[in-house]
């Protein structure tokens, strides 16, 4: 089930092969791991190889190569080769760079903004159009929406809840583990649950999502590309693709990517019931306007 959640259906053309391999590497079995390592270390050679040659060089089978390609979201080896060719011929302009003690203020600003922009580009390539459409349908059909987030994801969960209310969708946010567990256990088939977790392995939100799934809710995960325990309890997965480095912790690039996914989700939800959304936005705008001087 985990592999199915990260296959196919990108918002843009298939890309970021090396980042995708890095995201799943630690969870790969030995054979797939050898193939992944070879592709990562010999990318320039791989884009000129046949699938048979790659299988021979890695002591694997053509089926294993295809399986790895599908695990990272490609239809097959040819699509991986085309992506590698684009990446190597036209290198990414916004390089993932970590901060160093010698960086001055201008360099810090440049690195932060470049990394955030790259996270947005990468997330667009990893986000499934079909999955986003399914999430819109599930939320529109639900009588209520529960939003879960812990730690750095809590602020994204709060924002998601606020944005849902602004377009008239009944929503409740839980950023406390006990409240999450209670809300999840009280969910039913008419509930949609949105769980936001960069790692997909945060115990509190993982437990809440499992409880909601078992209670019959439709579960939607906003999580970084790769394999994680959260996928086993998620009906719909909206992937981000944000790389974290020593000084760019989970609270930074991942949140930029998560906000972009939520922004796209809210926009699609609003457009799916345009007239009602416009009326609700106008009404809530007037209410909020009364709070301004």
Protein structure class: alpha/beta
Strand percent estimate: 5-15%
Secondary-structure element order, N to C: HHHHHHHHHEHEHEHEEHH
CATH topology of the largest domain: Rossmann fold
Q: What's the domain count?
A: 2
Poorly predicted runs: 1-10, 91-95
> Gap between N and C termini, in Å?
53 Å
CATH architecture of the largest domain: 3-Layer(aba) Sandwich
Q: Specify the CATH homologous superfamily of the largest domain.
A: Glucose-6-phosphate isomerase like protein, domain 1
Instruction: Choose one word for the global shape.
Output: globular
Biggest β-sheet: count, sense, barrel?
A: 5 strands, parallel
- Report the strand count: 5
**Cα radius of gyration in angstroms:** 21 Å
CATH class of the largest domain: Alpha Beta
Could you tell me the mean pLDDT? Answer: 87
Q: How many H/I helices?
A: 14
Give the proportion of residues in helices.
55-70%
The strand line-up of the biggest sheet is 2-1-3-4-5
InterPro entries: Homeodomain-like_sf, HTH_RpiR, RpiR-like, RpiR-like_SIS, SIS_dom, SIS_dom_sf, WH-like_DNA-bd_sf
Pfam families: HTH_6, SIS
Organism: Rouxiella silvae
Protein name: Transcriptional regulator
């Amino acid at each position: 089930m985990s592999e199915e959640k990260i296959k196919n259906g990108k918002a843009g053309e298939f890309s970021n092969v090396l980042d995708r391999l890095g995201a799943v590497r630690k969870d790969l079995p030995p054979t797939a791991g050898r193939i992944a390592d070879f592709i990562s270390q010999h990318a320039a050679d791989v884009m000129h190889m046949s699938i048979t040659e790659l299988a021979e060089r890695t002591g694997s089978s053509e089926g294993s190569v295809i399986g790895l390609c599908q695990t990272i979201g490609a239809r097959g080896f040819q699509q991986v080769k085309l992506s590698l060719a684009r990446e190597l011929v036209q290198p990414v302009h916004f390089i993932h760079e970590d901060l160093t003690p010698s960086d001055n203020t201008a360099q810090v600003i440049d690195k932060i903004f470049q990394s955030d922009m790259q996270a947005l580009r990468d997330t667009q390539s990893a986000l499934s159009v079909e999955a986003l459409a399914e999430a819109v349908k599930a939320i529109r059909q639900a009588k209520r929406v529960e939003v879960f987030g812990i730690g750095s994801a809590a602020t994204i969960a709060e924002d998601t809840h606020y944005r849902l209310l602004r377009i008239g969708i009944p929503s409740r946010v839980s950023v406390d583990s006990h409240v999450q567990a209670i809300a999840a256990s009280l969910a039913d088939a008419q509930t949609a649950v949105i769980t936001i977790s960069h790692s997909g392995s945060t115990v509190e939100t993982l437990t809440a999502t499992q409880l909601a799934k078992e209670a019959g809710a439709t579960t939607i995960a906003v999580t970084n590309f790769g394999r994680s325990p959260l996928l086993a309890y998620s009906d719909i997965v909206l992937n981000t693709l944000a790389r974290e480095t020593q000084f760019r912790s989970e609270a930074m690039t991942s949140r930029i990517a998560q906000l972009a996914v939520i922004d796209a989700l809210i926009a699609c939800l609003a457009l799916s019931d345009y007239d009602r959304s416009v009326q609700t936005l106008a009404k809530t705008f007037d209410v909020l306007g009364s709070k301004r001087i």
